[in-house]
Amino acid sequence: MATYLGLDVGTSSVKALLIDGTQRVVGVGNAALEVSRPHPLWSEQDPEDWWRATLAAIAEVRAVAPADAWKAVAGIGLSGQMHGATLIDGAGRVLRPAMLWNDGRSGAECAELHRLLPDLAARAGNIAMPGFTAPKVLWVRHHEPDVFGAIRTVLLPKDYIRFRLTGARVSDMSDAAGTLWLNVAARNWDHALLEATGLNRTQMPDLVEGSAVSAALTKEIAAELGLSRVPVAGGGGDNAASAVGIGAVRAGQGFLSLGTSGVVFAVTDRYVSAPERTLHAFCHALPGRWHGMSVVLSATAALNWIAAIVGASDIGALLGRVETWAADGDHRTDAPIFLPYLSGERTPYNDPRATGLFAGLRAEHGPEALVYAVLEGVAFALADGLDVLTKAGAPLESCMLVGGGARSGFWCQMLADVLGIRLHLPEGAETGAALGAARLAMLAAQAGDEAQVCVAPPVRDIFRPNPAASAAYTPRLARFRALYPAEKATRVG
Questions:
Q1: Active site residues
Q2: Which domains occur in the chain, in start order?
Q3: What angle do CA 385, 454, 456 make, to 5 degrees?
Q4: Cis link prior to 348 (omega < 30° from 0)?
């Protein structure tokens, strides 16, 4: 039986996942990565480290997979951290460490791009933020002109791995949408966006859809890996690949990720945007589809913060205490309101200086009340994100729950009540970006169509909105939404 390899180039590790034609996991490999922060706001990695980690993760898969399963690899798919500026010269050499998605040095360049191109948001579907690739490269133009002058191609992290595997300079639509150089509606590079950073079309990789063949392994790499010259799929950015991995491939489907940050991801069959409310408008990794994405910067990060404040080392036990406390309805209505902007906020305010706060604190409020308020505040922030998606034309009909926070059934039910939509918690099967990459490899290798390949995982639990609970949250959500303008108006500095 043919097998398919998914490679996910993350920030903290490279993951390799080998599946067979039934999507049974045959082997998994991981290799750690480190981030360099040589100056404030800087976040960099050496692309050579990605390559070494990729080879190490592949070697781990080969060590655990049966030999015949490895030799049967019929396609490779790629996923990766988005936005990283990987600068390559004409000989294929890396010119400097890659500037990562969380590199924040290019704030001035973001403002400059909007001055140079007043219709930037209309063209790109997004506003300029330091996370995107374009302002990073503009920073290089200003501060490292010799490096900028030697740029032959700008690649994204997973596309650098493709370059090393195949020799081809290619990207896919979903990852390219995070550069700020793509006309997301047209799914093509935009000459005016490129000119604003001093680049041109020849310095961009070719574009393919994520489920299409981008290139094949070189003869030398195929021999080194013990494979034939198998096709490499276009692949996808990490969120789009994760959506493919959980079967969110049709309009109205999506997922809610409760990780360090919180993400609400909604698939659409047409381009939608609301850059003025910091909705990320990207192409999906599959043809003819896009996705809207709202981002809350502190989700489980806020929970971990309050757990440390109240001295709780066992978060599961802490949440159990909170659930018992919240069984008294009066406690819920009397709890403080929490604004979870501990690291600034993205959707809907795009305000890096926003702060967290508790409102309505009283002497009788103990640790349980504070933790409850934090859980609720994150849910309210995600409700703001869902509201942005809905008003932009990207409503969710169904939504999968992913991320570490989804282990709390109490929090999941709260989210269903606050958001007013059903939330599906999948079984603990592999549902990450590496699986999405492997599925894109299957599609590129014509091992099935989308309906056969991009199936949703089995559902372990469904959280349905409780009308009475939803009604009880309504006045508290209104109080929550009044807090940000007050916080901004009284901010010091």
A1: 238
A2: 3-239 (3.30.420.40), 247-430+458-493 (3.30.420.40)
A3: 65
A4: yes
Q: Is residue 77 within 8 Å of 140, Cβ to Cβ?
A: no
Helix (H) and strand (E) counts in the chain: 19, 24
What would the pLDDT profile of 305-359 be if each residue is shown by its tens digit? 999 999 999 999 999 999 999 998 888 899 999 999 999 999 999 998 899 999 9
> What does the pLDDT look like over 50-79, one tens digit per residue?
999 999 999 999 999 999 999 999 999 999
Secondary structure letter of residue 38 according to DSSP:
-
> What per-residue confidence (pLDDT) applies to 416?
97
3-class DSSP assignment, residue 375: helix
Cβ contact 382:405 at 8 Å: no
Q: Which two tokens stand for residue 158?
A: 């997973």
User: 0.85 exceeded by the pTM?
Assistant: yes
Cα separation, 16 vs 124, whole angstroms = 32
Helix, strand, coil percent values for the chain (each to nearest 5): 40, 25, 35
| Residue listed under structure tokens 């790109």 | 124
Tokens standing for 149? 């002058």
Length of the chain: 493
Q: CA-CA distance, 167 to 161, in Å (whole number)?
A: 9
Q: Please choose, from the candidates 303, 217, 221, 225, the residue with its C-alpha nearest in 3D space to the C-alpha of residue 262.
A: 303
Q: Is 217 exposed, middle or buried (0-12, 13-18, 19+ CB in 10 A)?
A: buried
Q: Is 147 helix (H, G, I), strand (E, B) or coil?
A: helix
Distance CA 85, CA 375 (A): 35
